[in-house]
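Fold this sequence, please.
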Amino acid sequence: MHLEVNQLHKQFNTRRGSLTALKNINLHIEEGEFVCAVGASGSGKSTLLRLIAGLDTPTAGEILVDGMQVTGPGPDRGMVFQSYTLYPWMSVAENVEFGLKLQGVPKQRRRQQTAYYLEVVGLSGFAKALPKELSGGMKQRVAIARALASQPKILLMDEPFGALDVQTKEAMQQFLLEIWRSTNTTVFMITHDVEEAIFLSQRIYVLSSRPGTVKQELQIQLPSESHPQIKRHPVFQQYKDKVMRLLCEDGHKVSSSLEDLPLAI
């Protein structure tokens, strides 16, 4: 799998005229990598992810997955949102199975893949439960299982733990790393949480604000296999300080007219 974003621009029309959300974005993600894009509000993170997912179209530039241009949504890209987006009337298993059903996967194979990925995310015992019976972290595990069940080439994650409390968020970060290692899934995740980006990813793209551009690409090399305690290590803090400096350098450029921005930015 090779994801490539070349010279990507995105503009929106607002009451005050044209607004450039993303400008000259260039990035790449290779098979098996875990990459994060981090930026403040207004940096176009969600817009970038929506464009890669095929949920919106760029004003200019191109997005390629294995050399094929992205022109819309496809099973090669799985998506996990911050909100759980589960169907409340469906059981956990039915939610996970839903995408496979839309793809026309035979019933027996759907059931097998659903059972496998529920086991991967540790929810085999909740297959018949409804979403209202689950905690926030469990709901997000279902959403991840649903995305993985279609066996996408890349998993796209839009601040998936942003709505969780601190303890659950840390547990879910560790869980996601374990899933990534065990399935060798390629992951591209956006977040405003600098510590989360450093903890999870092998590379980070730091985005500037308004318009969103790639300010710097950072390789992350922590001294040992990631666990929550690594966040107190001096090397981790050095990465955090560097990313924070990059984000703060252009903080003065952020517009105060946030009401003009589309909600996806």
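The chain has two domains: 2-76+156-260, 85-151. The first helix runs from residue 45 to 53.
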